[in-house]
Structure formats: structure tokens, C-alpha cells
Task: inverse folding
């Protein structure tokens, strides 16, 4: 990784942690909280690819868990959020275009990975009854973050392209 990629990754780790922590709605101790960190994960992945997206998502989101007192979730968050970005980034790389429909489908897939990933996390930690209850708040989080992403991703790409031009 060159200096620009390392710096970009560090910035997006911080942004992911920040947006995860700033607006959070606690659901319950077993279900964690609803937050706005996912739209940063979506943006970083579509703009910078699967590696920067995955590292930013995994470290930024799990850092937020640690700082907010949800340490038991941090290892699971690391895997789920990293996997979200990796799946989205690899999907976009495989399709090899940034048409609106492709990017939005990738965003939906990314958020589905989050809902399913946290469902299985909750099954592991608390059992199936509690896990079923996590589907609604995680789906709300996914929908809100996806809508924000869908509204701003094109403008974000234009800004990052103009900033990162050599």
C-alpha cells in the first residue's frame, strides 16, 4: 500500500467509527444499536474498492463497538462489516462497471450481508429467538444507510475523483 492508500484507509476507519458512534439508537444489550456507519462503508467500498472498504469497515465498526461498550460484539462486527465491504467490492469488481443499477444492487447485497451476518451472530451469542428479533432493527439500519448512500454516492465519487487526481 502506498501512502495515499494508507491515509485514505485511516480516514475511512475514522469516518466509519465516527458515524457509527455519533447517531446511535440502542435497541437492547443483546441486539446492540442502530447506527449510520454503513453508508460510509458503502461509500468507501464503491470509491476505493474491496480492500480499502473491507479494512475501513472492519476496523472502524469494531472500534466503535469497543468505544461504546459493546466489546462482546467487536469480533463479530469485525467479520460482518469486513465481509459486507468485501462482498460489495468484489461484486463491483467482477461486474466491472459503475452504472447506477449495478452500484445500487451491490449496496443492497452489502446490507443483506449485514442483516444475515448479525442474525447468525445473535444465534451464536443468544439463540434463535433473540436472533429473530434482530432482523427488524438491522433491516431498518440497512434501509436508512442504503437510502443515504443512494442519494449521495455519485456526488461523493466526483468529489473523491477530483481530490485524488495526481
Result:
Amino acid at each position: 500500500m502506498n501512502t495515499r492508500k494508507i491515509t485514505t484507509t485511516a480516514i475511512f476507519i475514522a469516518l466509519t467509527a465516527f458515524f457509527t458512534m455519533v447517531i446511535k439508537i440502542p435497541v437492547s444489550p443483546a441486539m446492540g444499536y442502530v447506527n449510520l456507519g454503513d453508508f460510509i462503508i458503502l461509500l468507501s467500498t464503491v470509491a476505493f474498492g474491496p480492500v480499502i472498504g473491507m479494512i475501513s469497515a472492519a476496523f472502524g465498526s469494531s472500534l466503535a463497538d469497543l468505544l461504546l461498550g459493546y466489546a462482546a460484539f467487536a469480533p463479530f462486527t469485525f467479520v460482518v462489516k469486513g465481509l459486507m465491504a468485501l462482498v460489495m467490492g468484489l461484486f463491483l469488481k467482477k461486474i466491472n462497471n459503475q452504472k447506477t443499477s449495478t452500484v445500487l444492487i451491490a449496496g443492497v447485497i452489502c446490507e443483506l450481508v449485514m442483516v444475515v451476518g448479525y442474525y447468525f451472530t445473535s444465534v451464536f451469542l443468544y439463540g434463535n429467538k433473540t436472533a429473530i428479533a434482530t432482523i427488524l432493527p438491522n433491516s431498518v439500519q440497512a434501509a436508512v444507510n442504503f437510502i443515504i448512500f443512494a442519494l449521495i454516492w455519485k456526488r461523493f465519487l466526483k468529489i473523491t475523483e477530483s481530490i485524488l487526481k495526481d
Observations:
- The longest strand covers residues 24-28.
- The mean pLDDT is 93.
- Residues 3-160 form a domain with the Arp2/3 complex 21 kDa subunit ARPC3 fold (CATH 1.10.1760.20).
- The helical segments are 3-22, 38-48, 50-68, 74-95, 100-126, 128-164.
